[in-house]
Write a structure and sequence with these properties.
The complex is a heterodimer of chains A (182) and B (467). Chain A has 182 residues and is an alpha+beta fold. Chain A is built from 5 helices and 4 strands. Chain A has a 4-stranded antiparallel sheet, with helices on one face. Chain A is rod-shaped. In chain A, 42% of the residues are buried. The N terminus of chain A is likely disordered. Chain B has a single domain, classed as Up-down Bundle (Formate dehydrogenase/DMSO reductase fold). The longest helix of chain B is centred in the middle third of the chain and has 34 residues. Chain B is globular and about 70 Å long. The two termini of chain B are 18 Å apart. The chains are: A alpha+beta (182), B mainly alpha (467). Chains A and B meet through α1, β2, α2, α3 and α4 of A and α1, α6, α8 and α16 of B.
Chain lengths: 182, 467
């Protein structure tokens, strides 16, 4: 490879694998070896891969729950405020606070807010949109969205050492290991 | 996955959902090439041109409507609800299959949904767009719809009446449209990244890159993505059931004979799924031939959809029976008159019998495995159902309204040419949007197709890999 010298601008080492299975077992070994600043890339979701790189976060469901409850409060609040306080209208003697009739719109706003928080929350936690990322500098990384599987160990990892880490990655039977520029 | 539950060579193993001989590369290349190619099938141009001419007709019809008012339509008193609501309910119903396929079948872990969910979702969006035209234009004064429909602080300090099902409808349909859009877009993100990485033209790289938002397939991203997607499916499931329920409330909560029945919500929801699957098949059967994706949309898909259609069709027929029973059992003079008028001596009784032919008699062909495997027959049955579901709303709306409580207000309803140009215009709009969609976006979910390959299966591994 062209860039062997370790520089401050090295983002990390990127290993390429041919199969989902080899990426998954490599990810497990990398985590077992004590690396913490790692990431794995695949063209489709692989079960257990996030676990294998030590990712344990369950924020998305909480954000969705909060969004849904906000939607419920907003929908119900709008109905109560507009029908009881702002514009009370006697229609055939029905109660102003017609809670039964308020259910369908409040249900819809609950779903609406929950669904939007799911998508926006997921994107925000993922840091997307993010047009630039160092891994895109790797020549073959465009295959990560098509056919190949990648694993990166970041240079900021406390255990990172260019030569030792490279040798370690090479031992995991990748197709190749390349350094990635910042 | 269902196919792993049986021993090798077992006859119960379902037919494959993907043709043999595919790998990551071939799936990716084939599906990307449908869009990023210089060669568009000639049939695409012909169909899109014809459909676009109907869109022109729609634009002319709406312009004339705004110019003259609703008098150009056949809508009258007592038939004050006519083509606009018939078309609205018909289109909304068609939209339901998309969410059903992408959400409910996902929750039930039906892997065959994968190759049809993307364009079924697109179909949902376009059907909802066509449906939304009607409530907006049905008064002939769409600019007034703003304060009739939306709760916003206006200068008149007016607020819509939340005790009316019509306002529930606004919330249901708008929520449905918006949620379907984000659900569809979320599903597209990884495939847009594939497009970004495969496109050679710099402009296309930019456009797809912008839409992909920098997706790089990170394991952390996938974990959150799958989490969000699954919950979205869970949210869409009650949503899709609520939408046609609320639409049916427009009728069921009134006191018009023939509308005031408790069977309406489930009967409408079943009808929506029925119409939706018929439309998915109507589109899938020609698309798989024109675009050569028979190995992705296999006979198993066609057969399964035909089966869903048969079952929901029978639920709809149960609804017809139930409706008739309600009318008789109510003991109400008006309900019983409506029933007899609708079925045998009214001026529109022919429409009821054509409806039964389309929605009850013809779909029974789908009991036969042999006929389910002949795409020409399935397509023909779907055409009957498309017409039948439109007629169902015609029967419900027109036959109930044209004989009012007072014989002095009885009146016949005859649609005008403008009613038809508007209806066919929306069909043209639907087909145009659908064809533009298959030309610019992946019509089959590429990343989900990859997961169907045998090599995509991973062993959770012995070394503490359980989760």
């Amino acid at each position: 490879m062209a860039h062997d010298a370790t520089t401050s601008s090295t983002y990390g080492l990127l290993a390429e694998f041919d199969s989902a299975q080899s990426l998954l077992s490599a990810a497990k070994q990398v985590t077992a070896a004590g690396y913490t600043k790692t990431d794995a890339f695949s063209p489709f979701p692989i079960h257990g891969l996030a676990d294998a790189i030590g990712f344990k976060e369950h924020k998305v469901p909480k954000i969705i729950l909060a969004g849904g409850l906000t939607g419920l409060a907003a929908g119900w609040g709008l109905e109560y405020w507009s029908q009881v306080i702002a514009y009370p209208m006697n229609i055939a003697g029905r109660p102003f606070n017609a809670w039964g009739a308020f259910i369908p719109p409040a249900f819809e706003t609950t779903i609406l807010f929950a669904a939007f928080s799911a998508v926006i929350g997921m994107l925000a936690l993922n840091g997307l949109p993010q047009p630039y990322h160092p891994v895109f500098n790797a020549e073959r990384f465009s295959l990560a969205s098509q056919t190949k599987f990648f694993l990166v160990i970041e240079a900021s990892d406390p255990k990172f050492n260019l030569d030792a880490t490279r040798a370690f990655l090479a031992g995991l039977h990748p197709r190749e290991v390349v350094p990635v520029e910042e | 996955m269902a196919s792993t539950e049986y021993p090798q060579g077992d006859v119960r193993i379902p037919a494959p959902v993907i043709g043999p001989g595919h790998d990551y590369r071939s799936i990716t290349d084939k599906l990307v090439a449908l869009v990023l190619t210089k060669h568009t099938p000639i049939s695409w141009f012909i169909t899109t041109t014809i459909a676009f001419m109907f869109v022109m007709g729609l634009i002319v019809s709406i312009t004339y409507l705004l110019f003259k008012g609703v008098g150009i339509w056949g809508t009258n008193i007592p038939v004050g609800w006519a083509f606009p609501i018939i078309n609205f309910v018909w289109w909304i119903g068609i939209g339901h299959a998309g969410t059903l396929i992408s959400a409910i079948l996902l929750l039930f872990n039906q892997d065959w949904r994968t190759s049809i969910n993307r364009f079924a979702e697109a179909m949902t969006l376009f059907a909802v767009a066509c449906a939304a035209i009607f409530p907006i234009i049905h008064t002939g004064r769409p600019w007034l719809a703003a304060y009739w429909l939306f709760p916003y602080p206006n200068a008149m300090t007016l607020w819509p009446n939340f005790r009316s099902p019509l306002i529930w409808d606004v919330f249901a349909v708008l929520t449905y449209g918006s949620v379907s859009l984000v659900f569809w877009f979320t599903g597209l993100i990884p495939d847009l990244a594939t497009f970004r990485d495969q496109a050679t033209h710099p402009f296309l790289r930019k456009v797809y890159g912008l839409l992909a938002m920098g997706w790089r397939g990170s394991a952390r991203h996938w974990a959150r993505y799958e989490n969000a997607y699954l919950i979205l499916a869970g949210l869409s499931t009650p949503l899709v059931l609520s939408v046609h329920t609320v639409v049916s409330f427009d009728f069921a909560s009134s006191i018009i004979p023939g509308w005031h029945a408790t069977i309406f919500p489930p009967y409408f929801v079943a009808g929506a799924i029925y119409a939706g699957f018929a439309m998915v098949l109507t589109l899938a059967i020609p698309l798989r031939v024109v675009y050569g994706v028979k190995d992705f949309i296999t006979m198993r898909h066609i057969e399964n959809m035909a089966k869903v259609m048969l079952v929901t069709g029978l639920v709809v027929v149960y609804g017809y029976f139930s409706e008739a029973f309600f009318g008789w059992y109510s003991g109400s003079e008006y309900e019983r008159f409506m029933l007899k008028n609708r079925i045998y001596y009214g001026p529109y009784h022919w429409s009821y019998w054509v409806l039964l032919l389309c929605n009850f008699i013809v779909p029974q062909l789908m009991w036969s495995k042999k006929l389910r495997n002949r795409t020409g027959i399935v397509f023909l049955v779907c055409m009957f159902i498309n017409v039948g579901m439109w007629l169902e709303r015609f029967v419900i709306i027109v036959t109930s309204l044209h004989r009012d409580f007072l014989p002095s207000s009885w009146e016949m309803y005859y649609p005008t040419i403008w009613d038809f140009t508007t209806l066919f215009g929306t069909i043209g709009l639907f087909i145009t949007l659908m064809f533009v969609f298959v030309r610019i976006l992946p019509m089959i979910s590429i990343f989900e197709m990859r997961t169907l390959l045998p090599e995509a299966r991973t062993v959770p591994a012995s070394e503490g890999g359980s989760h």
